[in-house]
Amino acid sequence: MNWITNYVRPTINSLFSRREVPENLWTKCPECGTMLFHRELAANLNVCTNCDHHLAITPRDRFTGLFDGGIFVEVKVPEPTADPLHFRDQKKYPDRLKAAQKATGERDAMLVVEGEIGRTPVVAAAQDFAFMGGSMSMYVGNAIIAGARRAIEMKRPFVLFSAAGGARMQEGILGLMQMPRTTVAVQMLKEAGLPYVVVLTHPTTGGVTASYAMLGDVQIAEPNALIGFAGARVIEQTIREKLPEGFQRAEYLLDHGMLDRVTHRKQLRDELIVILRMLMGMAPAVAGELPPPGELTSGEPA
Questions:
Q1: Taking CA 143 as the corner, what is the angle to CA 206 and CA 152, rounded to the nearest 5 degrees?
Q2: What is the pLDDT of residues 263-280, one digit of tens each?
Q3: Are strands 35-37 and 72-74 parallel, antiparallel or unpaired?
Q4: Predicted model pTM
Q5: Checking CA distances to 147, which of 1, 172, 211, 234 falls within 20 to 30 Å?
Q6: pLDDT tens, 109-137?
Q7: How far apart are CA 302 and CA 300, in angstroms?
Q8: Which residues contact residue 116 at a Cβ distance below 8 angstroms, ignoring those fewer than 6 apart?
Q9: d(CA 262, CA 254)
Q10: If you average pLDDT over every residue of the chain, what do you get?
């Protein structure tokens, strides 16, 4: 019995034991609770296939689905002074930055790129809420200015995807100073006669909403995105009144004239192509191209 127990049974169990399944293969929808397979979710642009809830998406994944062929080139962003205030709470600010960089694989909370959307050349920037809440830092300010300057240099429209909880507290007043800096960058685009289109994603709050996120020529939002300056609870305590249902959500803001469009993520690319080409005075985009009459394709008889 000892031989069977100690050798034969463990050998059989090892042959038929279940393989370990990685934990990141499934994502639970925070809205309906459906378990979503990671490949199916990615193919659907991080939108729940059951309830259409828009989950967070990284800037790189967003740009891969947005640009033609998923091809884009990063725009270089000047590096700001590291930890100018020598800020420390439970951790040092540089340590928090390193942890966020390791978790996201990005330099900071904003990625700036250039490429073509439906053969429409654009410069685009997107915030990553996973990077310290997408907080507005000196790097984010530099990124928006770099994107605006590149758009002016190349005479291209500038598209910005916002997602932030406000200014970065570890940079104090220097983080708040990005509000006027980015406002000046938007004004540079307007003076150059170039379109500035903002897509507000969940959530967009604080100083970001009070500056560049609400200055677009066209304001688009994803469905059910939280958009506001102060939190709803703070407002209720200030005015001592109960806020209406859906307050600070994209649909409520659309009904009250704060937005131009609320667009599903899967329809956003086509809508941006139409809007950008219209604002740039370009001909409407074509869905496909046929060879000119008389041209022979390979394999046809002469």
A1: 115
A2: 999 999 999 999 999 999
A3: unpaired
A4: 0.86
A5: 172
A6: 999 999 999 999 999 999 999 999 999 99
A7: 6
A8: 67, 68, 71, 122
A9: 7
A10: 90
Judged by DSSP in three states, 38 sits in helix
**Best CA proximity match to 159, nearest among 240, 108, 213:** 213
> Which helix (H) or strand (E) segment is 215 a member of?
none
Mapped onto helix, strand or coil, the DSSP state of residue 288 is: coil
Spatial distance between the Cα atoms of 201 and 224, rounded to a whole number of angstroms = 9
pLDDT in tens, 72-94: 999 999 999 989 999 999 999 99
Q: In degrees to the nearest 10, what's the CA dihedral of 160, 220, 173, 95?
A: -60
Instruction: Give the residue among 78, 100, 235 at the shortest CA–CA distance from 170.
Output: 100
pLDDT at 253 over 70: yes
**Token reading at 104:** 């996201």
CA distances from 97 to 94, 107, 172 (A): 5, 9, 15
Residue type, 96: R
Is residue 213's pLDDT more than 80? yes
